[in-house]
Design brief:
Strand order of the largest sheet: 1-5-4-3-2
Number of helices: 5
Helix content: 40-55%
CATH architecture: 2-Layer Sandwich
Shape: globular
Distance between the termini: 19 Å
CATH superfamily: TT1751-like domain
Number of domains: 1
Oligomer: single chain
Radius of gyration: 15 Å
CATH class: Alpha Beta
Largest sheet: 5 strands, antiparallel
């Protein structure tokens, strides 16, 4: 269900490199949620770092929505850079697994596989 890799890079460097890889592979970064920073700003003693990148390829998103509009609730895709017990990780929930839980439409699974392959490439190139 998950695809997660460890990296020797710092949290900051992995974040910069991921953003660059997303753009290189034809996706856009719609927003970056800095969950660690947000939690700490609310007074929560949260030691780890976590940035969630909302990424999207408009052509693929349009294909998904033209087949099943309610899947807008599963978009955009997310890739996270986070720390856990002193190590930096980059990961995602595989789109094929997520969409297969939401729909049995074979055309959607084909699109999800194409997106997933690109997302894994982004993650691997960022580690």
């Amino acid at each position: 269900m998950y695809y997660v890799v460890d990296t020797e890079k710092t949290f900051e460097q992995a974040s910069v490199d991921l953003e660059s890889e997303v753009k290189k592979l034809g996706f856009g970064v719609l927003h970056i949620h800095d969950l660690g920073k947000t939690l700490r700003s609310k007074g929560i003693d949260f030691k780890e770092n976590c940035r969630v990148f909302e990424v999207c390829n408009p052509v693929q998103a349009a294909k998904v929505l033209s087949i099943e509009m309610r899947l807008n609730m599963a978009l955009p895709c997310r890739i996270s850079v986070y720390t856990e017990n002193g190590s930096t990780k980059i990961g995602t929930i595989k789109p094929t697994r997520m969409l297969s839980a939401l729909s049995n439409e074979p055309r959607l699974l084909e699109i999800a596989k194409e997106v997933e392959d690109k997302m894994i490439q982004m993650i691997d190139n960022s580690k």
